[in-house]
Amino acid sequence: MKASFFLLFLLAFCSSIHKTLPTTKTDLISTNQLIKDGETIVSSRGTFELGFFSPSGSSNRYIGIWYKQILPYVQTVVWVANREKPLTNTSSAVLKVSKPGTLALLNDKNETIWSTNTSRSVQNPVAMLLDTGNLVVKDAKDDYPEDFLWQSFHFPTDTHMPGMKLGKNFKTRHEVYLSAWKNNNDPAPGEFTRNIDPTGYPQALTKRGTSVSARIGPWNGLRFSGSPIPLLECCHFHFIFNKEEVYYSFSLINSSVLTRLVLTSNGDIQRLTWVDRTKRWNIYYNLPADNCDTYSLCGAYGSCDIDNTPTCGCLEKFIAKHTQQWEKGDWSEGCVRRTPLDCNKEHVFRKYSRIKLPDTKHSQYDKTMTLEGCRQVCSRNCSCTAYSSLDVSNGDKGCLFWFGELIDIRKLPERGQDIYIRMDSSEQESEAGSKIKKEKILAVSFSLLMAMILLSLIMLLYKRKRKKLKLKEDSELPVFQLSTITRATNNFSESNKIGEGGFGPVYKGVLEEGQEIAVKRLSRTSMQGLDEYKNEVIYIAKLQHRNLVRLLGCCIQGEEKMLIYEYMPNKSLNSYIFDKTKSKLLDWPKSFDIINGIARGLLYLHQDSRLRIIHRDLKASNVLLDTDMNPKISDFGLARSVAGNEMGAKTRNVVGTHGYMSPEYVIDGIFSVKSDVFSFGVLVLEIVSCKRNRGFFHQDHNLNLLGHVWKLYKEDRSLELIDEPLADSCHISQMLRSIQVGLLCVQQRPDDRPSMFSVVQMLTNESLLPKAKEPGFFTERNIFDEAKSGSQTASSKNEVTITLLDPR
Fold first, then answer.
1. pLDDT tens-place string over residues 524-534
2. Are the beta carbons of 760 and 680 closer than 8 angstroms?
C-alpha cells in the first residue's frame, strides 16, 4: 500500500515538473504549429534559441532570440518581436505560422499582438530559426535558400549580427537600422537609432530623435574613416554602395566566434566578443570613445584633439568665429578662414593630414577620378570647399567633394586621412615666405647645435676617461684582461650564456686555473651605463659576508665593461620557489635556513658593514644559491649608502621591482633600511607559500599575496598558506613564526616594521611576537587587467635595474 502511494506521488511529481520545464522543439515552425510560453525552438547547431522571455527586473513577457550556448552564464537577447506590446498574461498566448505566410503572436484573447507582413502568398509557409540568429518565414517547398517572405534581419532591434545588412534598399525604400532599448529592463524603442545615412556620400550616424549625436565618418575602402581602432581579426567587413542599395555588414572568419554590435540605451555603440575563459562579454570598443566623438563639438572648421587642452582648436589658417565665446569654451560657432575666400581671386588647396573626414551630408563623389583630377574638378567650382580620396584600400582612387562648411573634424594620429581644403592663394604665399625664413633659422641653429655636440663629445670622452681611472683606483678589485675573459667564456659563446638582465647578458666561464666564474657583460644597447656599473663594483668590493655574493674582479677595456663573480651552480631562489617541480626539492629546514641567511645578509648591510647599505632591489631573483643551497644576496646596481646614523634618503628616481617595493618608496621616493625590510617580508611570504606576491590569484577574492596572508592571519588560518611540499617537513611553530615575521615586515608604516636585527632575533628564538598590523599594498585589483599586463613577470620593471635572471 505504501509502495503504491509512493509510486503515485512520484508520477504526479514528475508530471508537474514536465509541465513547468521549457520544451525544446526543432528549428522550424510548420503551418498552424503553436509555440507556447515555456516552449522554445533552437537553431540547427544550437547557437540560438527563440521563445518567451522577461527582461531582468520585469514581469512583462516578450518573444525574443538569444544565444543558446552561453545561456547557463547569461541570457543575451539579440532580437525582440513585440517590443512595443509586451504580454502580461501568457497562459494562452501563442506564436504561430499561418497562411498565406504570416508569423503572428496572439494573446490569451486570441488577439494579434504582433505579426509579420508579406506581399506574397504561399501554400506551405514555415518559420525557421537559422544558425545566424535570423528568424525567417519561407515557403517549405521553395528550393531557394535566401528567398524569404520575411526575416528578422530586416527588422533588427538594438543588435547588429554577423550577416545582417545595415542600410537601405533604394528600390523597395526599406531601411534596416538599429533602435536602442528604452532601458535595460524595457526593450521598447528608446531615444537612439543607428543607421547608414545615404544623403550625400553614405556614412554611419547615431541619432537621438532627429538630431545627430555621433558620426563615425564615410567608408574609405577599409573602414569608416572616423574609427579610432583597428578592425577585428575575426571578421570580414563589407560596404556595398550601388544604384540598388547601400549597406554595411560583417561576416565571421571563424564561425565559433561570438561577436555582435549593440546600440545601448544611452546611445553608445559597443562591439562585444564572448570570451569563453572568463564567461563574459568583452567590450572591444565603445563609441563615443571620448568627448571628441561628440558630433560637431568644435563647430565648422574646428578640430577636436583629445590630447590637447582645450580639446577644440581651429584648423591651421583658420580663426575662431567669435573669439570671446571660443575662449569661454563655447565652440559651437566654430571657425572661419583667416583670409576670406573671393571667387574672383586665385585659390589653392591646403593639405590637412591625419583627420577624421568631415560630415558628408553635403557632398558628392566620383569613383573613377585620380587625386589630381579631384583637384582640377574642385578648383573649377568655387562652392567646392574641399576634396579627398574616396578609397584608400589600394592607393588613392576616386573623389569625395564637400560643399559648404566642414563639420565634425577630429585628429586621428594613427588612422586619420588627408583632406585638401580650398584657401585664398595669399595663404600659400605667406606660407612660402615663412618657410624660407624657417629654413634660414634652421640652418643657423643647426650650425650652433653641431658645435655644441662636438664640444659635449670632447667633454664626455674626457670625463669617461677620468671615471675609468678613478674606478680602478676606488674598486680595490683585481682587473682582468679582456683576452682572459674571452678565453674563459669561449669568446662569449651562446652555449656559455646562462642568463640576461637589464645590465646585459651573463656568461659562465672557466679560468685557466680551473675556477668557475660568472661574467656579467654590459650590453651596448643597455640603458644602464658606467654609473650603475661603478655603483655595483664599489659596494660589493667593500662588502664581505657569507650571505652576499662575492665579486672576484672587473674588466674595463675599450667599450667593454664586465663584472666577474663567483659562479652559483644552483641559480637563483626564484627558479626553485616558483617552479612547481623544483619547489619540491626545498624542504622546510632548508627553506628556513635560506630565510635566516637572507636576514643575516641584510643585517650585515644595514648594521655591520663599513657602509650602511640599502639594497633597494631585494627579490627572489636577486638571491643566488651556492652548491650547498646557501643564499647569497646579489645585484647591487641600485644600492645606496647612507652616512653615519642616517637610516634613509629621498630620491626622484624610483627604481626597483613592483611587488617588492614599499609604499613610501613607490609613492614618495623615500627609501630606507625599512624599505629593504618590507622587501624581505614579501620574500619570506613568497618562500613559505611558493607563490608570487604580484600576479597571485585566488578563486575567492582579488587580493594579492599580502592581502591573502593578512586575511588568513586575521581568521587564524595561517597554516593554509603553507605550500604542500613544505607541509610534510615543516615545523609548525617555525612556520607560523615565519609567516608572522613576514607580516610584521610588510606593515604599512615604516616605523611599525622591525629592524633586521630584531628580525634575526625573532626568527632564531621562541619569544612572543607582537601582533601584525595591516600590510601595505594589499587592496583588491582587477585580476584580468593584471593578467593582460603580464604582472607575473619576475624581472624588474625599471629600465635601470640591473637584474640577472639565471645563475652567475
1. 665 555 666 77
2. no
- The correct CATH number of 21-199+226-257 out of 3.40.50.2000, 3.40.50.150, 2.90.10.10, 3.40.50.10840 is 2.90.10.10
Q: Give 433: exposed, middle or buried? Use CB within 10 Å, 0-12, 13-18, 19+.
A: exposed
Distance (Å, whole) CA 79 – CA 63: 9
Q: Which of 139, 157, 141 is nearest to 149 (CA)?
A: 139
- The residues assigned a catalytic role are 617
Report how far residue 211's alpha carbon sits from residue 136's, in angstroms, rounded to the nearest whole number.
33
Reported confidence tier of residue 362, pLDDT bands at 50, 70, 90: very high
Domain boundaries, the chain: 21-199+226-257, 293-430, 479-566, 574-788
Nine-digit cell string for 220: 574609405
CB 241 within 8 A of CB 249: no
Helix extents (H) in 222-308:
none
Distance CA 128, CA 122 (A): 15
Helix (H, G, I), strand (E, B) or coil at 363: strand
Convert the pLDDT of each residue in 693-726 to its tens digit. 887 877 777 788 999 999 999 999 988 888 777 7
Domain 574-788 grouped into CATH 1.10.510.10? yes
Q: Which CATH superfamily is domain 479-566 in?
A: Phosphorylase Kinase; domain 1 (3.30.200.20)
Inter-CA distances, 418 with 354, 390, 719, Å: 6, 11, 65
Q: Please write the tens of the pLDDT for every residue from 295-306.
A: 999 999 999 998
pLDDT in tens, 532-578: 677 777 777 777 888 999 888 888 887 788 889 999 999 899 989 98
